[in-house]
Amino acid sequence: MADERNILIIGSGGREHALGWKLSQSPHVRKTYFAPGNGGTCENIDFQSTEFDKLLIFAKEHKCFTIVGSEGPLAKGIVDFFEREGLMIFGPTRKAAQLESSKDFAKKLMKKHKIPTPDYCTFSDTDKAKDYVNKQNSKLVVKADGLASGKGVILCNNANEAIEAIDTIMTKGKFGAAGNRVVIEERLLGEEASFIALCDGKAILPLASSKDHKRIFDNDKGENTGGMGSYSPNLIIDDDLTEKIIKKIMLPAVSAMRNENNIFKGFLYAGIMIDKESNEPSVLEFNVRMGDPECQPIMMRMNSDLLEYLEAAYEGKLDSMPPIKWKKQFATCIIMAARGYPGNYHTGDIIQGISSDFSENVMIFHGSTKRDSQNRIITDGGRVLGVTALGSSIEQATNNAYSAVHKISWGENGQYYRKDIAMKALRH
């Protein structure tokens, strides 16, 4: 490992803020840059995450180890672009990123290599998709095949809802080109969990377990979002289940990619459904980066030096690394969103209370914020802040997070957040 290294983080959300916050604690990091970053990050570079030429020149001049936070640049091949110039960059290649950028690609891989996942069919023709739906007797899930910022999944209770979902995605084009094809799969029942691991192409190293809350309203009602809150650890992921997930899903996925001459390096995130009766895991989807908002509580709980593990993964040396050390504390993240998200919402509101005297157990990770001409922090998107707190129990962590949330506000329309983050965990 180099004595000191500059870091360039690609992305602008809460995940990138959390990664940068954690990496900046490493004694081996000289400076952390963000492109483009947000109102809460320092050393922001005014480049968009798709301006590969500019990003490459900057990384070369500043001798940066580049960490790609979001899925968009990965799917467009930023890793391939940097590697051709011999630069250090952490994340999967464009071809490997298909695990997330094409749900059809991921499903085919899982079926071929016997990784547990719901039965499915893929369609690019709306009429054929609807004919298929009408012949099914079970509840279904309709998914846009491509990238849709975590929103391109519609849960359907019957055929009419599934046909409506097909129209929404394919005919009306709600998710743009991502919905030119749809994957229709059996809807599983059980407990959802997020399982994220570092991968070096051969080995994996699991991160702390976590739980996301995808739906916009309390009690998991309403549309899917990019994530409205999360907590870590996920209490339903015990040692036995962890072993099952590693042996049946994570290692087979990395091995399958390698066997297909498609080496996967980066964060591999499996969205998993756990059957309540059998306690068996099935893959709902793969993502090829850290989750947002799962990243925020995971980084809060991490005791080890993140840079050391990212470099080991980059170098293909995860096997030589000890297990990551975690704080015994719990962590909960509450997403504060602009009212109206994931539909229409207002931006440009001045955020009040963000500089409150929060305890050392609280971090305000910025998602969609920026600074105005007077250096005030204003809203700049849907998921504005990820208020994250530690506690000795999941209850205390959650109470600490909500206490901080109550100190923050903005605009005439005001902020919106779910009131039930981690409540299921409290009942376990």
Low-confidence stretches: none
Number of strands: 24
How many whole angstroms does the radius of gyration measure?
21 Å
CATH topology of the largest domain: D-amino Acid Aminotransferase, Chain A, domain 1
Q: Give the percentage of residues in beta strands.
A: 25-35%
Count of individual domains: 4
Q: Name the shape in a single word.
A: globular
Q: Assign a percent range to the helix content.
A: 25-40%
Mean pLDDT: 94
CATH class of the largest domain: Alpha Beta
Description:
It is a single chain. The chain is of the alpha+beta class and 428 residues long. Helix 1 packs parallel to helix 10 (295-301) and helix 7 (126-134) runs antiparallel to helix 8 (159-171). The strands form seven sheets. Strands 11, 14, 17, 19, 22 and 24 form a six-stranded antiparallel beta sheet that branches. The chain has a four-stranded parallel beta sheet with strand order 2-1-3-4, with helices on both faces. 28% of the residues lie in helices and 28% in strands. The chain has four domains: 5-91, Rossmann fold (3-Layer(aba) Sandwich), CATH 3.40.50.20; 119-186, 2-Layer Sandwich (Dna Ligase, domain 1), CATH 3.30.1490.20; 191-320, D-amino Acid Aminotransferase, Chain A, domain 1 (2-Layer Sandwich); 330-426, Phosphoribosylglycinamide synthetase, C-terminal domain (Glycinamide Ribonucleotide Synthetase, Chain A, domain 4, Alpha-Beta Complex), CATH 3.90.600.10.
